[in-house]
Amino acid sequence: MTLLDKHGVRLTVDDAIATVTLANAAKRNAQSPAMWRALAEAGSLLPGNVRIVVLRAEGKSFSAGLDRQAFTPEGFDGEPSFLDLARGTDEALDATIAEYQEAFTWWRRTDLVSIAAVQGHAIGAGFQLALACDLRVAAQDAQFAMRETSLGLVPDLTGTHPLVGLVGYARALEICATGRFVHADEAGRIGLANVVVPGDELDGAVADLAAALLAAPRDAVIETKALLAGVAGRGYEEQCRAERAAQARRLRDLAGAGD
Asked: Are strands 9-14 and 17-22 parallel, antiparallel or unpaired?
């Protein structure tokens, strides 16, 4: 069932699995504000029974990053150019970037597990979109790069937090500040990719991972994801208390189900 198909974004749902497809292969799935709004809308349209969201892309590239048209004086049709935004107030610029970030924030909702299937280039905004997901399956030709710093900018589409969490501060700084490519084999070795497979096995590997995630009861996965997601903000003893509280909820639910 197709729920959304616009601005290079298509959302389909098959029972408990939703698929969000970047569908502008002719432009290597380069991103624009219109695409970001469509991605945010896709998150809002998910039916309540969806447990897994797969993010994939048509064509040879996952996403070549921000469409360079954003940096031209004319910008995109019907949109303020980035140059115009830069001339606005700090409050207006902050609000606009916050709106753009909405395309990247919903993928880590505790009631979902999101999987990015990455082939080819995932550059800049494309890299950050892959980082927005909980898990990443990479084809052997995948190449990740954070090019913003090389352009005199900073990564601002929510990618810095997950990148540091995955690879550590020092490696994240090196990747961002140099703008170099991280190839699939290295991505798997440093924890950036959960699985690396030949390109023709990408869809199958994602399907296998989704099936394995669906095998566990939904509430247990939700509680476990929340526990793990909160580790960075808790001390050891606080995390122990959180584990006890979560387990108590699960045991009570299981006991109630047996009555």
From this structure: antiparallel
**CA distances (Å), origin 41, targets 10, 33, 77, 175:** 11, 12, 20, 31
Dihedral, CA of residue 27, residue 132, residue 100 and residue 121, to nearest 10: -20
The values of phi and psi at residue 48, to 5°, are: -65, -20
Query: What is the phi-psi region of residue 129: left when phi exceeds 0, alpha when psi lies from -120 to 50, beta otherwise?
Result: alpha
Question: What pTM, to 2 d.p., does this model score?
Answer: 0.95
Residues 171-196: pLDDT tens digits?
999 999 999 999 999 999 999 999 99
Q: Where are the beta strands (DSSP E) in the chain?
A: 2-6, 9-14, 17-22, 52-57, 113-118, 121-123, 135-139, 143-145, 182-183, 195-197
C-alpha 9/C-alpha 20 separation (Å) is 7
* Of the candidates 25, 61, 99, 44, the residue with the CA atom closest to the CA atom of residue 8: 25
pLDDT tens column, 126-180: 999 999 999 999 999 999 999 999 989 999 999 999 999 999 999 999 999 999 9
Measured in degrees and rounded to the nearest 5, phi and psi for residue 51 equal -115, -30
CA distance 94 to 92: 5
